[in-house]
Specification:
Blueprint lengths: L1 H17 L3 E4 L2 E4 L2 H18 L1 H27 L9 H8 L3 H29 L3 H25 L5 H19 L2 H4 L9 H4 L1
Antiparallel strand pairs: 1-2
Helix pairs in contact: 1-2, 1-3, 2-3, 2-5, 2-6, 2-7, 3-4, 3-5, 5-6, 6-7
Length: 200
């Protein structure tokens, strides 16, 4: 379980560091971070399955704190005076110094979508039941839509047409979600999930 949580946090931080490079997939342009970032929705579902909704949300809040620390330290590292022999200051700032609007969009979308994901996954498990893969697919289909809408609206509204961006990114995220479904059976549970009456 510790390894799973560490993987979740690592994927979130890696996504924030690598998000500044856009990549083109056929007719769709997405941040390069979309592949590893989308995986975190399945990972938080696995954490939710084992630890319950309340503890899964603690992981979300802790990861948000880690993301805030990363953003703050990147700004500090950029502001510190570079050594006289360092020739890559502009590139360093370009990669790690995301604009405040993009950073705000990313953190807001992460928090909103992750809380939605934990809520829907928990509700589906309690009220609907069925196979685990269906719970993951249901929660991810809503949370990735929320993530896409919140991020693109905050980051790009008034700068470029947002509807096309939303459609393309959501399609890519759902494709990755489907491909990640076998992961939920690769992670074996050594003990039963925490009682929802205690953890929710």
């Amino acid at each position: 379980m510790i390894l799973l949580i560490a993987l979740y946090v690592a994927c979130e931080l890696i996504a924030n560091v690598t998000a500044s490079k856009p990549v083109t997939l056929g007719p769709v342009t997405v941040p390069s971070a979309v592949f590893i970032y989308t995986l975190t929705f399945t990972l938080i579902d696995l954490i939710n399955e084992r630890l319950g909704k309340r503890r899964a949300r603690r992981v979300v809040y802790s990861t948000l704190a880690a993301n805030l620390l990363l953003a703050a330290y990147c700004r500090l590292a950029i502001a510190l005076p570079a050594a006289s022999f360092y020739a890559d200051e502009a590139a360093f700032a370009s990669v790690l110094g995301g604009t405040p609007r993009i950073v705000a969009a990313s953190l807001t979308a992460y928090l909103v979508s992750s809380l939605i994901d934990t809520q829907i996954f928990s509700w589906w498990r309690e009220r609907v039941g069925g196979p685990k893969w269906l719970r993951v697919l249901a929660s991810n289909s809503v949370s990735t839509a929320a993530d896409t809408a919140v991020f693109i609206s905050i980051a790009f509204a008034g700068v470029m047409p947002v509807l096309g961006l939303m459609k393309g990114q959501y399609a890519v995220k759902m494709a990755i979600t489907v491909l990640s479904l076998p992961l939920i059976y690769a992670v074996r549970r050594r003990a039963g999930a925490a009682p929802e009456g205690v953890e929710s």
